[in-house]
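Weekly sync notes, structure subgroup
Attendees: PM, AL, DS (notes)

Item 1: joint prediction request from the bench team. They want all two components modeled as one assembly rather than separately. Inputs as received:
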Amino acid sequence: RKEVEQDPGPFNVPEGATVAFNCTYSNSASQSFFWYRQDCRKEPKLLMSVYSSGNEDGRFTAQLNRASQYISLLIRDSKLSDSATYLCVVNSGDSWGKLQFGAGTQVVVTP
Amino acid sequence: NAGVTQTPKFQVLKTGQSMTLQCAQDMNHNSMYWYRQDPGMGLRLIYYSASEGTTDKGEVPNGYNVSRLNKREFSLRLESAAPSQTSVYFCASGQNSGNTIYFGEGSWLTVV
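Output from the run, pasted for the record:
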């Protein structure tokens, strides 16, 4: 089983709609969680960190559910520019805390 | 705002050739990483360096070597390239282990 699993999608979303997707992780000792965004043929870029209490950054909301070991990302009022692959990132929980990346969820926002 | 710079951006190698991917960061970060990204598999850690003077294997180290030349620079070497090493390679750096990391623009490597 992969340490970080994501639905690859694509999630096809009309412009202005809301889309949400989850990421599950297997290591209960993980302490740090992030969402990265990756555009086609570009490097991943940090979208937001995910805090225990949940957090919001503009149209983006991230939640953490430790009991069920998943994090979620919700995008409201989707823009065409939100089309990208969203990578779930979890630290490995070992003494050094290496980051584990999911394979990504593709979001396609359509006019 | 250079951030993380890696070279070359594109490279085609013949099987058995060697090459070195260079990476430098100007953010005074302690930790540096090399990842490869293949379709459907996500980013996989090849090697990392928690701090200057140390390097450790990641998930897929076979066929690669690294050098942490100084705090700024972390190079990845393919001694004898194989077609299975065709991939996109990303260098990254971060202040401390387990926290946010920042990526270079990637190096597209094809081994024929």
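Discussion: The two ends of chain A are 37 Å apart (CA to CA).
Action: AL to compare against the crosslinking data before next sync.
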